[in-house]
Specification:
The chain is mostly helical and 443 residues long. It has 16 helices and 4 strands. Helix 3 crosses helix 5. It is found in: Cell membrane.
């Protein structure tokens, strides 16, 4: 199970690096079909999807396994796959790129001491070229047939779920995995590649909506806003971040603090998915992040009504059920941290320099927004010697002085030997008292 999790995380990380290209291809499809109606834009979208993106994915996979040299070998291997089997190139390019990058790096490290002086460049270039082509050839002979069968099996299973009307109930799996921070794995590792295959036959895909729908999380946050009046001011920013910013991690802590609210999120998600299915709604490409804005941008105009209705219905169902749950237990579940902090003095001694890294699963969602907000807080506090970054959990550099993550995500950070500050919500600046105290010399 651990191995499968690592493989899926690696695969989703490669795809996450390519998300801007996927979004670009989707935007070109939208513009060519509706706004501009230009054939050349449509051709550009096809070239991006069928050639540029798979090759770039091979390069990124090779780079992760073998550095820059491995990236070049991965590019060559992915190019062979694209020319041989464009239908399954998305998945295969990551596989062969990783293999070529790993073998290229390890092979060169082993034989570099045996290369005669003056022949280093010649040998390296020949080795890189031959290894990349051999990796692509091996994939053509041994991997492509199995990949075709797998894609066919998954595609048939997906079609069966849609025909039988059971695709909405995938929320029983998606929502529980989301709140334990597997949302990027699900979206980038599973729904995205399958959705791209569905695009080729249907022109749009409902799979791009199953995880990115902001409605269920919005409903949970709205329920807290309605039930707990003292939280309304802080909840407004969370509602905006969730729906317009597309950072779904902001509602995870609220469900984790009362797991019964997961029922509200699941019910809302099922209702929204059912609306998407009945109205035949889908996106022309992945929406990243899962914001209402990016979702509508990536949708054909004829699908706007169904998508908006699905989001609103999922938010309404989630909010109604969450309100019933919260009203059954009215006592305050979250401490008003801002009031708690107001009367306390911060130490006046400041650290001269510190490198603080905000961490989340992909390093591009909640951690990016939290780092930007924290930089503003540092300016207000007068701390000028602190550098703030955002990274994924597996990319924390050795020069980091401290890391910050959500409390429930901390268990994924292993082997950390520097201060790790945890908060209930990365985007709630009222929870950073301990970190600020440490930066000011009180830790």
């Amino acid at each position: 199970m651990k191995l499968a999790g690592k493989v899926l995380k690696y695969y989703s990380r490669v795809i996450a690096e390519c998300i801007p290209l996927f979004v670009t291809a989707g935007l070109l499809s939208v513009f060519s079909a509706g706004i501009l109606q230009n054939e050349h834009l449509y051709e550009m979208s096809k070239v991006l999807s069928s050639l540029v993106i798979p090759v770039f994915m091979g390069y990124k996979a090779g780079t992760m396994c073998g550095g820059e040299v491995g990236g070049l070998a991965g590019t060559l291997a992915a190019s062979v796959v694209v020319m041989a089997e464009p239908a399954s190139a998305m998945i295969l390019s990551v596989m062969v790129g990783s293999m070529a990058g790993f073998l290229c790096k390890r092979g060169l490290d082993r034989v570099k001491n045996w290369i005669p002086s003056g022949f280093e460049m010649l040998f390296s270039n020949l080795y890189l070229a031959s290894l990349g082509l051999l990796a692509g050839g091996a994939a053509y002979v041994f991997v492509i047939p199995e990949a075709e069968w797998l894609l066919g099996f998954l595609g048939n299973g997906l079609s069966l779920m849609i025909d039988r009307g059971i695709i909405p109930f995938i929320s029983f799996v998606v929502e529980p995995l989301k709140i334990v921070f597997f949302n990027n794995w699900i979206n980038h590792g599973i729904f995205l590649p399958l959705g791209l295959e569905q695009l080729k036959t249907q022109g749009s895909s409902i799979l791009f909506l199953l995880e990115t729908n902001p409605g269920p999380g919005f409903g949970v946050l709205l329920a807290y806003t309605l039930v707990y009046r003292n939280m309304r001011k802080s909840m407004v920013s969370s509602l905006i971040i969730q729906s317009l910013g597309g950072i779904h991690e902001v509602y995870f802590p609220y469900i984790l603090s009362d797991i019964r609210l997961l029922a509200g999120a699941i019910a809302g998600s099922i209702a929204g998915n059912y609306c998407f299915m009945v109205t035949g709604s889908g996106l022309l490409g992945p929406a990243s992040p899962g914001s209402i804005i990016t979702i509508l941008i990536m949708a054909d105009k004829k699908h706007w009504f169904g998508i908006v209705m699905g989001i609103l219905i999922s938010a309404a169902v989630s909010c109604l059920l969450s309100c019933l749950i919260l009203l059954g237990k009215r006592e305050k579940s979250f401490i008003d941290k801002e009031k708690e902090q107001k009367g306390e003095e911060m130490p006046m001694k400041r650290m001269e320099h510190a490198r603080v890294y905000f961490v989340c699963d992909a390093g591009m969602g909640s951690s990016a927004m939290a780092s930007a907000l924290f930089k503003k807080r540092l300016r207000l506090e007068g701390l000028s010697g602190v550098e703030v970054f955002h990274v994924s959990a597996d990319r924390i550099p050795a020069d980091a002085d401290a890391v910050v993550c959500q409390k429930d995500f901390a268990r994924f950070l292993t082997g950390i030997h520097i201060p790790c500050f945890t908060v209930d919500n990365l985007t709630d600046m009222s929870g950073y008292k301990e970190l600020l105290n440490w930066l000011m010399g009180g830790g």
